[in-house]
């Protein structure tokens, strides 16, 4: 499932492929398009020049030299890919943006992705406007994060998935950041000390930075895809030894999502609070 690093790679690709280009042909599938008539909005985009490709959290925003702005959320399996003009429609192709030089396609097997078309002064998608600070572009302010988490009784892992608190962090980065910070994922968010939140901020930023450094493929690849490598420290590695202390990693389910952690490195009760 795409998280901030994968969506940032998608942004960089789209910027390289489309920024400054005039759209000569646009197709949008009604199955993933929100905001009215897909064919009508495709006609509005045709002839426009892409002036910027932006990202906030897990959202992409393609800005044109006119009124239309295209918002894209990759959902669980969506990806933007580069193809030749004469390539036939790809399997699971849901959108197509052609310029004179390139043909960019949006593929989405499971149809959880979303594309919104906005014109004029229309309000962006509510999920976009509700986003909190972006973990990469804004950085993670430990004091601000601690203030937000201190009011939350649910687990810190679940809190980190709330995009209004920290935009872009998903299941993988949350698990990796908590492992790096030595924080148990079931701890109540409000129980974290300022020092622990500082460690968590460093862990999240480090994991995002390291993931981006590994993303050198011309197309984003999800760890869940068949044949894909798993470069992470703990995500998806239940039953394997902890990279830090060699204790067997465990898996739990929180809010319907899997979390892998180390029972020794990430104790449920911090040592200083144990009786």
Word description of this protein:
The two termini are 40 Å apart. β4 and β5 form a beta hairpin. With 275 residues, the protein is of the alpha+beta class. The chain has 7 helices and 11 strands. It folds into 2 domains: 126 residues, MutM-like, N-terminal (N-terminal domain of MutM-like DNA repair proteins, Alpha-Beta Barrel); 132 residues, Helicase, Ruva Protein, domain 3 (Orthogonal Bundle), CATH 1.10.8.
Backbone structural class: alpha+beta
**CATH fold annotation of the largest domain:** Helicase, Ruva Protein, domain 3
CATH 2nd-level architecture of the largest domain = Orthogonal Bundle
- Whole-Å distance between the termini? 40 Å
Q: What helical percentage do the residues reach?
A: 25-40%
Number of structurally distinct domains? 2
Indicate the radius of gyration in whole angstroms: 20 Å
Shape: elongated
What is the spatial order of strands in the main beta sheet? 2-9-5-4-3
Mean pLDDT: 93
- H/E element order: HEEHEEEEEEEHHHHHEE
The proportion of strand residues reads: 15-25%
Poorly predicted segments: none
Number of helices: 7
Number of strands: 11
